[in-house]
Amino acid sequence: MSGYESDMWRKSQCCEGARDEIVQLLLGDETIGLVGLNQIFEQLYVLGQAPDASVQHELLKMVAAKNYIPPKAEAKYASGLMREYAKFCAKKEEQSERQTSTR
Fold first, then answer.
1. Which residues contact 30 (CB under 8 A, 6 or more apart)?
2. Pairing mode of beta strands 22-27, 30-35
3. Tens-digit pLDDT profile for residues 44-55
4. Which H or E run includes 26?
């Protein structure tokens, strides 16, 4: 009996529960995939963390907890993550303003 039969695979601990979404991010001239980025952005936003230099280290650390970041590419990742987090925050603010103006 193989360990890869479909029922056994579906019941495996590694595959249960919610899966993190993979988000593609453009860093320079290459596209990378990062796991859990939207959840990280949401968490930082809810905590009131503005997209400025003070959050950059924490953002990089949170992303590195679920994704490999090559040491030589940390600066490139940090700037790309900050750019995307700023876009995320701007979009959230815009949605909030729209909801406020329709009330």
1. none
2. antiparallel
3. 999 999 999 999
4. strand 22-27
Picking from 63, 74, 59, 77, the residue whose alpha carbon sits closest to that of residue 22 is: 63
- Retrieve residue 34's tokens: 């990062």
Pair of tokens at residue 26:
């453009």
Of the pLDDT bands very low, low, confident and very high (cuts 50, 70, 90), residue 18 is low
| φ, ψ (nearest 5 deg) of residue 48 | 80, 20
Distance CA 44, CA 63 (A): 12
pLDDT digits (tens, 9 = 90+) for 52-86: 999 999 999 999 999 999 999 999 999 999 999 99
Q: How far is CA 83 from the centre of its chain?
A: 12
- Sign of the Cα torsion 62, 14, 68, 88 reads negative
Phi, psi of 24 (to 5 degrees): -90, 140
Domain ranges of the chain: 21-101
